[in-house]
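User: I'm putting together a teaching handout on how multi-component assemblies are represented. Below are the sequence lines for each component of a complex, exactly as they appear in our records. Could you produce the 3D structure of the whole assembly as structure tokens, so the students can see both representations side by side? Please keep the chain order the same as the input.
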Amino acid sequence: MPVLKFKIDYLLKNIQYADLETIRDALFRLKCETEILEDGFLEVEINPDRPDMYSLEGLVRAVKGLLGAERGWSRPSTQNSSITVEVSNVETRPYIAAAVVYNVNIRDDEDLRQLIQFQEKLHDTIGRRRRKVAIGFHDLDKLPSRQLYYKALRIDEIEFQPLGIGYAKKASKILVETEQGQKYGYISLKGEFHPFLLSGSDVIAMPPVINSNITRIEVGTKHLFIDVTGTNKEVVEKVLDIIVSNLAERKGASIGQVHVLYNSAQITYPTLKTVETVLDLDYVNNILGYSLEPHRAIELLGYMRYNAYFMEGKRVRVEIPPFRADYISPIDLVEDIAIAIGYEKLQPSRPEKYTRGLLLYKNEIKRILRDLLVGMGFTEVMQLSLVSPDDVELVPRKPVFIKNPVQRDYSVLRTDLIISLLGVLRQNQLLKKPVKLFEIGRIAYLAENQEIVEKDMIALAVMDDEMSIEKIQSPLYTLLEILGIEYSISSECTEQIFIQGRCGSLMIGNQKLAEFGEVNPEILEKQNIEYPIAYANIDLEVLAKWSSKTLHRQ
Amino acid sequence: MKKEFKVSRSEYELLKKIARIGIEEADIEELARELGVNKSTLESLLRLLAEKGVIGIEETEEINYSLTNKGEEALSQGLPEEQLIDLILSGTSSLEEIRSKLGDIAGIAIGQALKKKYITIKDGKIVLQVDPDQAKKEINNLKIILEKIPEGIKEVPKDLLKRGLVKKTRIKKERVKILVPLDEVLDNVVVEVSALTRDLIRSGEWRQVALKKYDITALPPREYPARKHYLSEFIEMLRDILKEMGFKEVEGPIIELELFNFDLLFQPQDHPAREIHDTLWIKEGRVREVIPEELLDRVSRVHSSGWRYEWSAEIAKRLVLRSQTTSVSARILVSKPKPPLRVFTLGRVYRSDVVDATHLPEFHQLDGLDGDNAYTFRDLLGVLKEISERLGFEIKFKPGYFPFTEPSVEGYVRLPNGKWLELFGAGMMRPEVLEMAGIDYPVGAWGFGVERLAAAYYGLTDIRHLYTKDLRRIQLSKIKL
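Assistant: Of course. Below is the structure of the complete assembly, with chains in the same order as your input.
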């Protein structure tokens, strides 16, 4: 979740009638967690559905609304900037939208920091780390020409001075030698071609990688020229709308339109598109379990900065402002109404209907097994189901590997619970013998035909100074006897795990119920275990299917 | 009042035996022989009785003389000096000749004879200086002493000891003396036993005996009971709570299609949570499940119109380790259950996290669905409140964001340490989700991670302790439920 910092002084200056605690409380109600930092900053966690709150202006707008100080939204004044952007077929990043905001007036370093934070957070979230959308801020007064061109050019033919570098470099070098180039250079590069934004003949940006130093914004910059490029036209336009409508909240600011010329069409930006919808209050009331009248709904929507108007009946017309990126359908208005009411004011209610609770039958059986095994002196263990590739080599089954693991030790699902039990026994060799333990859990592996098998198993193990198969047979048989399971005994068992001639299987018909025996010393040696171990595993599904409890129920 | 004698059972048995043979005083070794018991056992029992003042033990030392091999030889063949005199009397006088005839004992014989002034040596010849009868008489006196030694003798001339003909040994003897008449002791004895036995009970003798008092402040050895694991106990408690609230348990696979883990939950395919850093894909393997085309069509339609992108069925069919048990909820919704719907699932989920004190690569999640024809957001808040209260926590609500719910809510519970823990993620399933699944009534969804709550519940600062390999930790874990 994006974490932003805002200077507390600036927040208080912008919301003069509220103290910090009131502001923090309002932010909490707007889904934000806050924390006061030592250096005079407020840290704010903002959910990814509200990118309009990633700048001070947007955050203040939302807080003021919720506190009832301001309502709705009014369209900022707009004029023509006389800037044009000519687009010629940028295959890898086809869309660009641009606009001017006059009188932004970057007064100090904090203003500048806050603006860059806004840009970065938009990149990381809605911009999908610049792949979908990238933003460039430019000092309008530094633009060499009002004729701009957005096109793909050969990277070995273009040279410019990138931001933060003291001299001009070839674009091909910028991609390789700068941190930005390494991080974002691959996104829109195709062969030798990369998108560039030129002002007259000067490169002012190489989206989505880096801007040129020519139009650098700094303290003292008055007016901003903003470009937004990307792969999805609607999102590109939405991001521009968010930025422009936020910056236009600044005192004295106004918007300058930019004409973007495609081969076949001309679009004037920003569109500042609003969406209109009709909200049925019965719908709202049914979802919230609340009774809301139109005048109250209009008021609440206003607090959330929507413009809402009366219609006949229990309906209101709602205008969604251009900076709201999260509106998909009327349900999104329902949540904002609930937020404006305050979740704490919505009384939790109790269900009126009686329903019968029920556990998975398998889990009922698990409980019986746990009790019986503890009664026989076995302690329950719980281990992670992700293990290392070395662990699964113990078992002759084809494992399910993770394609992109984070740590090798947790990169494959256990194929048998013996992996977990041996891991625990290895660490408990110094305890008084016998050491007896069990685990109930899921294993996974690939069948012959590559199909994934998931199974819930029970495994038990006994470690002692001297082993006899009875030490595992006797608890196993007792368990099955108590559960009323009838089985046949076979001498077949997994060769790699057990000592041949000292192991066996229990079958119900041709279904394998359990396998048990003395663990092959070769495995023990590999696992650094000095004591003999007897092990048994039971297929929980088969067990649950044939227990007397099951048969009795049918 | 008569004196009471507290004795152990074996002390009591011994006293009875001694009384039977009726002695006042005896050597312990002899007594052992007489009673037919092991000497060291007898000794330790007598010492215990001595501590109680019933008997006294007196230690004495006896000196015993015995003949050495040399002494035996002197008796049978004559003392060396005696043999020398006999040789001289038979006419041998050359020192050399005498030496060769006497052999080993020549040195001693000549030495003794010189010492006793029986002989002198002149020009290589030995000459008698005394009357041989007188000398023999002296020698005979010594032999008489030697002869008496095996029978026992009080004193032995030092000379014999020095010459190594006689050995002196000291023998320690213990004598036991009865201090209190045994009849009196036996009349006033109280037998103390340290353990009650089957024999005592069966014979009724437990009535006569006294059970020894324990030092009750001494610590016993520790017990290590077989136990259920504390995390599984916690999980079962959660199951009980949900069952009691009328929820029915369901389950699903841990290796899951992206369709159920993401797409049906309205998570767009280019969402950051579906990127390589956050999603764990399966390297190889397939599932048999066939997804109905009609379901894929609905998902495609809803995603394309809601998120404005081209939805891919191929991406939806990839296999991941489920990142949330909400995948099970998605499966349930797709099965179009009739209202009222009240189900929960509890199982493992997997994340791209590096293991540390607060992160595990996998953990349990509890997820629930609750829906009915007139189900409301307030009903959902009611369920969250109920679960928290049953867990013993106070709850507060905060608006939240999840791609598949609207309105969304986060439930914070107040832990015993006063801190608020973000526990629940919940909300009303978005109409888009219900449309994809084909559900026509409102449904609330909620879920939370089990381990973080369990760690808080048990006061663990390191979440890895929930998956400990230390059996003692499990066996001695404190009850908190």
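A couple of points students might notice: Chain B has three domains: 5-56+178-211, 69-164, 230-475. The longest helix of chain B spans residues 132-148.
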